[in-house]
Amino acid sequence: MTLLTERPPTARTSAEVELTGLAKRYGGTVAVDDLSLTVPAGEFVALLGPSGCGKSTTLRILAGLEQPDRGQVLLSGTDVTAVPAHRRDIHTVFQSYALFPHLSVADNVAFPLRQRGVSRPDIRGRVADALALVQLPAAGDQPVTSLSGGQQQRVALARAIVDRPSVLLLDEPLSALDRSLRQAMQVELRLLQQNLGVTTVLVTHDQEEALSLADRIVIMSDGRAEQVGTAEEVYDHPASLFVARFVGEQNEISGIVNSHGKLQHADVVVGAPTIAEPGPALALIRPEHIRVGLDLSSPADVNNIDGIVRGVSIAGISSVVLVHCRGLTLLARVPRDGRPLPHVGDQVRCSWDPAHVRIFPTPEGA
Asked: How many whole angstroms separate alpha carbon 39 and alpha carbon 47?
C-alpha cells in the first residue's frame, strides 16, 4: 500500500452543507423523513444505516439527482434545492465507478473539465495532478478497461477531484473491492480528503468503513437520523437501543430493573454507570468487554456469572470464546497477547465492568 503524501493543486473553497427538514416519499414509502443535518466546510461525514434507511436517497437529493418533497439543500448558505445537478459544485463517485469504457484513463478524468470548457494545456496539467494524487501517474494513456477494480476506483476518484469541487459525495465507492484492497483504499481515501480539505459525504453500509473514515457518523433509520456523533460517541455511547444494536456486536441480557436500578436476569445482576428506571429492560455489553477467567473461588455477585466454554476460535487479532451461562450465551473477544485461553468444557467466570454496560428500557413483553 502506498500512502498519499503529495500536496494537491489549490482547490476551490469547501462548502458547508446544510440539509433542513428534508422529506421524500416514493408512493406510500417514506424514504427521508424530516431530516436536518449540517456538515461544516472540510468535514468528512458518513451516512450509515441498514438498507432502506434513506441514506442513498439523502445523497441523491444533495447531488441534485432527486428533488425533495419538502425541505432545503444549502451550500454555504445558498439555497440550491432547485438547482440541477450539473450546475452544483458537487461531484459524486458511484459504486459502479461510471467510467466511459471507450475512453482512455486520461480522457475519463478530463471529461468534467472539457464540459466546462477548460483549455487543453490546463486540462493536461490538472489531469496529471489528479492521477498523481491517486497514485496512477503513468496510466493516462491506458484503456480504462485494462485496469483492475481498485485502479478503476482510483480513476473515478481522480475524475471527481480534477474539477476541484467544493463538495465530494461518495456512494459506497469501495464496496466492490476485496477486503484487503478496500482497507488500503480507506487509508488513501482519508489522506486524500484531508489533503484536499474538501467537504465529503460518504454513504456506506460498512460500519468499519464509517468508523475509520469519518469525522462524524450519521446513524439513519426509517429516513431519520437516530444519532449524529464521532465514532467514539456512536460506538461507546449509543443514544438509542437501535444504535446500540446496529453498531458493532453486543451481548444482550434481558430482565427487569429492580428498585436499586440494576437489571435482574435469573442468576445474574447487571449494573450500569447510571441507575436505570424500574421495569423491563435490556442490558448490552460488547464482547471485547467480557473477561473470561478460570478463578471461581470468590462468590459471584453483580456483573459476573459462571458458565461452561462451548467454543474457542481465532479471529485475527483476537480469540472468540463462546460461554453458556445458565440459560445465557455470552460471546467474549480476548486479545491474542500471549495470555492463556480456556478450552472447550472448562468452567469459567464471565465478568465485566459496569462502565461498559448500557441498559435500555423495552416495551412490556418484548
From this structure: 12
The span from the CA of 151 to the CA of 131, in Å, is 11
CATH number of the domain that residue 270 is part of? 2.40.50.140
Q: What is the mean pLDDT of residues 152-178?
A: 86
The candidate with the shortest Cα–Cα distance to 306, out of 288, 293, 321, is 293
> Given this model, what pLDDT does residue 365 score?
47
Q: In what order do the strands lie in the sheet with 318-325?
A: 291-293, 347-351, 304-315, 318-325, 328-335
Q: What is the CATH number of the domain that holds 117?
A: 3.40.50.300
Mean pLDDT across the chain, nearest whole number?
89
CA quadruple 223, 227, 230, 235: dihedral positive or negative?
Answer: negative
266 and 230 together in one domain = no
Of 241, 257, 280, which closes a domain?
241
Q: What is the pLDDT of residue 10?
A: 45
Question: What is the distance between the alpha carbons of residues 83 and 62, in angstroms, rounded to a whole number?
Answer: 10
Q: Are 308 and 345 in contact (CB under 8 A)?
A: yes
Question: Mean per-residue pLDDT for 327-354?
Answer: 91
Enumerate the β-bridge partners of residue 359: 283
Domain assignment present for 272:
yes
* Residues 235, 125 within the same domain: yes
Q: Is residue 6 part of a domain?
A: no
Instruction: State whether 169 and 295 are in the same domain.
Output: no
Judge contact between 109 and 162, C-beta under 8 A: yes
When pLDDT is cut at 50, 70 and 90, the band that residue 5 belongs to is very low
In the numeric block, which cell numbers belong to residue 340? 492463556
* Strand stretches in the chain, DSSP E: 17-26, 29-39, 44-48, 70-75, 78-79, 90-93, 167-171, 199-204, 216-221, 224-229, 251-257, 263-265, 268-270, 279-285, 291-293, 304-315, 318-325, 328-335, 347-351, 357-361
- DSSP H/E element including 286: none
Bridge-based pairing state of the strands 44-48 and 216-221: parallel
My answer on whether 82 and 141 are in the same domain is: yes
Give the chain's domain count. Answer: 2
Strand partners, 315: 318
- Its domain, for residue 340, covers 249-361
State how far the Cα of 321 lies from the Cα of 309, in Å rounded to an integer: 7
